[in-house]
Every structure is written in C-alpha cells, then in structure tokens.
Amino acid sequence: MSGTVNDEKSEKASASYEERVAVDGPVGVEPTQAEHKRILRKLDVHLLPFVSLLYLLSFLDRANIGNARIAGMAVDAHLTGLRYNTIAAVFFIPYALAEVPSNIALKLFRPSRWIPSIMVAWGLVMTLMSLCKNYHDLIIARIFLGLAEAGLFPGITFYLSLWYRRRDVAARVAIFFSAATIAGAFGGILAFGIEKMEGVGNLHGWQWIFCLEGIVTVLVALASFFYMHDYPETATFLTETERAQVVYMLKEDQQNLATHYDHKFVWQAMLDYKTYVQIGIYMGLLIPVYAIALFTPTIVNQLGYSAARAQLLTIPPFVCGCIATIGVGLLSDRYHLRGPFIIGMAFVSLIGYIVLYTQRAPGAAYAGAVLSAVGVYPTIAVDLAWAGSIAGGDVRKGVVLAMVIGLGNLGGICSSFIYITPPYFHIGHGTIMGWLGLSILLSFFAMWDYSRINKKREAYCAQHGIVNDAETREKYRDMGSESPLFRYTI
C-alpha cells in the first residue's frame, strides 16, 4: 500500500511528525543492532530501486542529446560551430538557479507531490523536443528541460537524508547515483535501436530518441504520485515500532537539531564558508562527469569508430563506473570516511585523463576513457554524503545540498565548451585535469579543517562540562552545525 494513497491521513501524520520532533526530541525507542540492520534492509528495498529509477530517467533525458548528436541531429538541425555546445550548456543555467527554491519547496510541501510533479513537467518537455527541427527550437527546449529537472537530483539526495543516518547515507546515494552510469550505458543501447526508426511518422531517428524516452518519464511520474512515501513516520511499509525506531535513530544522529522551517536556517547555510568549499569540490568532480556524459559518444567516434559502434562502445565506461560507484560508496560508509575516498578516486580519474591526453592509439585512448569514468563517478555520491553531513538540521541540510548541487552544476557550462578541438581534445582533457586537481586540494583542506573543528569542540565540551543529553541538545537545537555537540565527518 502506498504512503500517499490517503492524502488527508498522510498530511495529518506529516504534521504530527514535524510537531512531535520539534517539541519532544527523539521520539521512539533505540533499536538493537539486529533490528537496525533489518530496518535498513527494509528501507533499502522500498526506497532505493524507486529513486534510482527516477534518477536514471532524469540523467537519461538530460544526456541523450549526446547520443542524438551522432545519430544525425547535428546534420539535420544544422548545428555548425559551437551550436551543439551552446545547446548542451543552456540547460545548466536554469538547472542551477532553481535547485535551492526546489529543495525548500520539497520541505514545505511533500516529496510525494513535489518530485512527481516536476517529473511530469520535464517528461513533457522531453517528449515535445521530438518536434524540434532547428538550433533555436533546441535552445528553448533545453532551457525548459533544465528548469523542470532542477529539483530531482538535490531533492532525492535531501530526501534520502531524511530517512538514513549520516553514516549510512553514502552507500545509498552511491546506489541511486549509479543510475546515472546505467543511464549512460542504457542510453547508448537505446539510441542504437531507436535511431533505426528514421523516417517513421516523418520524424528523424534522433527525434524519436527524445519522444520515446520522454513518454516513459511521464508514465513513471504519474505512477510516482501513488507510490512515493513522504517521511519515516508516515511510511505504511513500516510497523509502528519500526517508525519509532527510525525516528529515534535519525534524531540521535542529528543531535536533536531543528527540523522545522525558519529563514535563519537558510542564512546559516548560505553564510557558512564550508558550504563553498564543498561547492568547489563538487564542481571539480562534476565537470568531468558531465563531460563524459555529453562527449563520450563524440570522443569514441573521433577515435575512428563508426557512429553505430560508437553508441555501443560508450557502454563499458559507464558499466565500470556503476560498479565502482556502488563499491566505493559501501566502503566509505563502512569506514565512515569521505575525504580519503574522494581524493583516491579523483587520482584514478586524473590518470585516465592523462592517458587520454597523451595517447593517440584508439585502444589506449579508449582505456583512458574507461579509467576516467571509473575514477570520477564514485566521487559524486561520496561527496554529496559529505556535503550533507556538514549541515545540522533538515532545512539547513536541504539548502546546503541544493547549493552544492546547484552551483556545482554551473560547471556543466564549462563541460559544454571545452571539447572543441577534435580528434584529440587536448583543451578538454587538460581543463578537466585542472578541475580534478582543485577537488583534490580542497578535499585535503576540508579534512584538515573538519578535524581541527572537531578537536576544538571536544576540548570545549570537556572544559565546560557539556554532556550530550536531551536537555543540552534542546539548548543548542537551533544552532545547526555550530552546536558544540555537532561533529563533522572526515
């Protein structure tokens, strides 16, 4: 039974959740280790496949323009010069600007209403892109696609943080983000088959790519209205005892920090320098990810493979990236570490881009493309888990995640304009090497800074006799990450 079938009941339960958490602190009982593992498995089964499907469709719809390009769109729409790059880039402007308002809206309304609604919007835009015939049509469509899609990725990342503790969330974000790598592989397979519909209904094959993939998104969005659950306390797949245990774990993890909306929490997020450090790390990682999604078909094609074979050869880098994403996410949660895994995998990707930059033989360069994807894809999930863990309180966390993802996505504009020198793309590969280096340096700084702050707070609490009990947590409830009880994940 869905958590959103009975709207009146769900709204009442949701209000009860906000009111009880704000007043009573941890509501429920502490689960045993065995109960905790069983509850996590139950949450995983009911949440992860669904949100992964949503993100798969989202990434497929934003990145399929790369497949459409080599399926004939560049020729039929007369995309000469930098026109394709511009079409790819304009998506990211409304996408970045709308993410913070979208996460606030998700908190003010309900996930089961907000997320399916924006899915319907971008699915319709995607479907109507099949009617685009020229450069100007595609520009307008991509602007609206970016606006409609903006809330999905930060929304789902924030949504998962409302269900899982900080120490458990990296693996879950990794699983849901791995849908992006599956989308990259799946997009190549779909494009290979769909472009054979050339001429059907007086549409080109690349137009059918937009049409069919958009229709699937709309159908899934409509089903989402009835399937998606809002909060742990309103989840019908959990028993009353399990709901109480989940709420208890989440409140303990967040040190009873505020869950209600207040403007001051938005300002806390926006004025914290650590938010901007995380934005820099994320941008340096996301630019390579978008470059891989937007230009891997073109890069492979330029290595000397036909367009059809290029569609299929884009699959292995994404499959390998998917496996690495899940594996690294699980390890990051097991050791409760973020920075070291980001730095290590960014180095792997850096090596891949060095191979791409220096090698001209198709086989060696293709191996570099695989290595670059394997390295950089896992860093995104781990970094988002890290960014979410630096923010105390629901609203502050939602705003931090939206800012990191939103401003970081402006890097997609950079990704769109650096691959302009075929067949070896030295400008593109060199630029990405620089961004990866920036992420590595900022990650080292963040690890040092968080460790410094944690030690300072431990000393402060010991000096002033501050104990971590219900009364003390209530005292520092509205301080967010500045609470002396709050500890940063390294």
Automatic annotation (TrEMBL):
Pfam families in alphabetical order: MFS_1
Subcellular location: Membrane
SUPFAM superfamilies for this protein: MFS general substrate transporter (SSF103473)
Annotated ranges, domain Major facilitator superfamily (MFS) profile: 47-490
Protein name (Swiss-Prot/TrEMBL): Major facilitator superfamily domain-containing protein
Membrane topology: Multi-pass membrane protein
Transmembrane segments annotated in the record for this chain: 43-60, 82-102, 143-162, 174-194, 206-228, 279-300, 312-332, 339-358, 364-386, 398-420, 432-450
GO MF: transmembrane transporter activity
Keywords, comma-separated and alphabetical: Membrane, Transmembrane, Transmembrane helix, Transport
Superkingdom as given in the UniProt entry: Eukaryota
